[in-house]
Design the sequence.
C-alpha cells in the first residue's frame, strides 16, 4: 500500500486467503526500504513461488498464479524505482519480461497518458466553445443595450 503522506511511505503486506473464505488475513508487513532482494527462484519456469529478503528477515511467498507473480514483480519493481532513492533491492532469477519495456505498467501508463491527452483536448475544445459563447453573449448584450437606447430615444421624441 502507498499513502499520500509526504514523503510517501510504501509497504509490502503479505496476506493469506483461507479456503472457503472470500476475505484476506494480513500475515506480515514490511516497509519498502527494508526490501533487499527479490528472488524469482527460476527464470526459465513459470511458477508462483518466490522469495523476498528483507533487512532482518527472509520470507517465502506463493502467488495465486505465475501470472500474478509476474504482475506483482512488475508493480514491485516500478514502486521501488519510484519511491526508493538510496538502496534499491536486487531482482534475481526473474524473467526478463518483468523489467522489460513491455510491462503492464508501461501499457497502463500509456493508457493513462492517452486518457489525459483526450481529456485535455476535450477541455480545450470546451474552453474554445465557451469563449465563442461569451463573445456571442457580449454581442447580444451590446445589441440589447443599443436597442434599449434607441427605444428610449424614440419614446422621448414620441412623448414630445
Sequence:
Amino acid at each position: 500500500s502507498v499513502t499520500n503522506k509526504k514523503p510517501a511511505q510504501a509497504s509490502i503486506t503479505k496476506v493469506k486467503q483461507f479456503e472457503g473464505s472470500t476475505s484476506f488475513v494480513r500475515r506480515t508487513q514490511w516497509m519498502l526500504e527494508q526490501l533487499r532482494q527479490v528472488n524469482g527462484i527460476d527464470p526459465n519456469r513459470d511458477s508462483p513461488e518466490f522469495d523476498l529478503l528483507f533487512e532482518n528477515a527472509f520470507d517465502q511467498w506463493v502467488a495465486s498464479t505465475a501470472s500474478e507473480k509476474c504482475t506483482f514483480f512488475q508493480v514491485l519493481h516500478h514502486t521501488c524505482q519510484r519511491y526508493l532513492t538510496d538502496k534499491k533491492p536486487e531482482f534475481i532469477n526473474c524473467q526478463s519480461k518483468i523489467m522489460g519495456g513491455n510491462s503492464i505498467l508501461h501499457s497502463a501508463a500509456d493508457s493513462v497518458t492517452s486518457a489525459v491527452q483526450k481529456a485535455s483536448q476535450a477541455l480545450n475544445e470546451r474552453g474554445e466553445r465557451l469563449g465563442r459563447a461569451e463573445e456571442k453573449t457580449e454581442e447580444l448584450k451590446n445589441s440589447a443595450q443599443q436597442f434599449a437606447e434607441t427605444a428610449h430615444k424614440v419614446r422621448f421624441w414620441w412623448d414630445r
